[in-house]
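Budget justification, computational time. The allocation requested in the original proposal was used primarily to generate structure tokens for proteins on the priority list. As evidence of use, we reproduce two of the resulting records. The first is shown immediately below.
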Amino acid sequence: MYNEQEVLPLLADRLRPVLDGLATTYEVVCVDDGSADLTPALLAKLDREWEQVRVVRLRANSGHQAAISAGLALARGAYVVTIDADLQDPPEVIAEMLDTAHREQVDVVYGVRNDRTTDSVFKRTTARAFYAIIRKISGTTAQSDAGDFRLMSRATVDAVNALPEHGRVLRFVVPALGFPSASVHYKRAERAAGTSKYPFVKMLKLSIDSMTGFSLFPLRLATYLGLGAGALIAVLSVALLVFARTGQTIPGWTSTVLIVAGVGAVQLFCLGVLGEYVGRMYTQMQARPSYFIAYDSLARESHPDVPVALDDPLGGRQLR
């Protein structure tokens, strides 16, 4: 949450009955992303009145994805649900998410918006186009209408926390892990109170982070442009030679154009090749694991009398 003094009391009134009705222990990690209004004071009051509330305040406004990452790093639950404070994503869906995770034996349950009429036509159109492009150039399976409202098992949260990359976009990081998943659908509501803290500039930054964090296409674009320019130069060279033989060009013009265009194409191609190597270094620096072990029979067979922590099918941890 960031500057959510208007909506915070409404959030507590709707969230607490849902969690109290789950018949399980829970905690509410409230991440205050450097609010400058009365949000910290309201959270302090909520902390005194609601035993399960844990308030985490960031020293400065670090951004939406960084705030979620902070919450994931501190949350202790067997399952973790991330939700924004604006009540556009209904807390009542949390119970359905938990039930789906148990019933279908999955690690991730995505909240998918089946009705986004509260969003502008521009936002809906650009969002769907953006997700389509990301899926095409990166190979991820992120759903178009799934944001950051999701349930994750402890194994998923631990995997996300183990990733060393900075500036990560969780709505693409989580699908990229490839853990078993399911979806629940809901109608996206209007903001309950206050104003949006996610203007176009922040959305644009999120888009850039997503593209550079999940695809080498921007780097390879230079290679593609270099190859395209080279092919164009080859065609242009033939045309210019024909014009030169027929005397339809200014003396020296043909050679000048060919040299400048040819050198430019070669430079662009070399830049693309360099980009390929930089891209591979960049991918290695991200150090995303290639797989995650859910069960190791050797650990149990080697020490049958010693309790060994294993991941259960739902992603939790248990002793055997």
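The second record produced under the same allocation is shown here.
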Amino acid sequence: MQKQTKIALTTLTPVAPCGNDPQGNHYCYDQVPGVVKKLATLWQTENCYEHIGPVPIPSHQAIIQIIHQLRQILFPGYFTRTKLHAANLEYYIGKETTELYERLADQVIMAIRHDCRRTNSPCTHCEERGHSQTIAFIETLPRITTILSEDIRATLAGDPATNSADEVIFCYPGLLAISIFRIAHELFRLEVPIIPRIMTEHAHTLTGIDIHPGATIGPGLFIDHGTGVVIGETTIIGRDVRLYQGVTLGALSLPRDAGTTLQQVKRHPTIEDEVIVYANTTILGGNTVIGSRSVIGGNIWLTESVPPDTRVLLKRPELIYSGKKTS
């Protein structure tokens, strides 16, 4: 005979559906003005930073659009909707370059004015200087194109995972970061304020590759995979160098006042021609020189120079295996 299970019946209290909360005075708008007043007061002190005044600051979004337009000019046919062929190529490049000149000049002039306001400098003839720097940059575009061609060839030569320049241009984060660096570096050399750094930090955001626009980098740089690569401002890199992910070319420990006392001092290493630096290696110091054709293995920490044609490798670690024994 089976046992009978007794089921207890309970009365459920009806729950009001959402939205039936009685209307009341729940709003807190009256507390917002107090916060606004505190913020406005803070922005008027030297402890906080603001940009309020008649002089406009460069537009971050406009500079990103300039990067896109420059890539269309440097890699015609890759990032455009227009179908290009021999008959309309010169017209297309002319139109885009003229528009680029106008857009970039506006931002450069604003950057110069903002810099003058920030430093309380006397008039530096912002408009004349801005147009002069912009056309000087435009004149570097053929050289940038030539160098980028060598960067692409170095990638094809160094990476067996691809045999297509199209794939490198469209897909490789290393080439994207290098392309933006090449652009920003020329503006940096022309002493255009703030815009070069906005450009390279945009590349950093997209790729995880952090290259300061002040670095000096020869043609044929190949950054494989790329995530976590850091190249400091005073780094010098020669021709046909290959870097893998996680490589840091940085500075040694700096004093607290380094931001003012070491601005013109070489703080980052020199990597000579045809050097390979494998993943997660850190090379530090302005006096550190890695000689030509050297190979630096992965997971290495270097603060001293290496002669040319040298291999620097870690001693093979002792591996410990644990787990269930098998018969």
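A brief technical remark on that second record: The longest strand covers residues 222-224.
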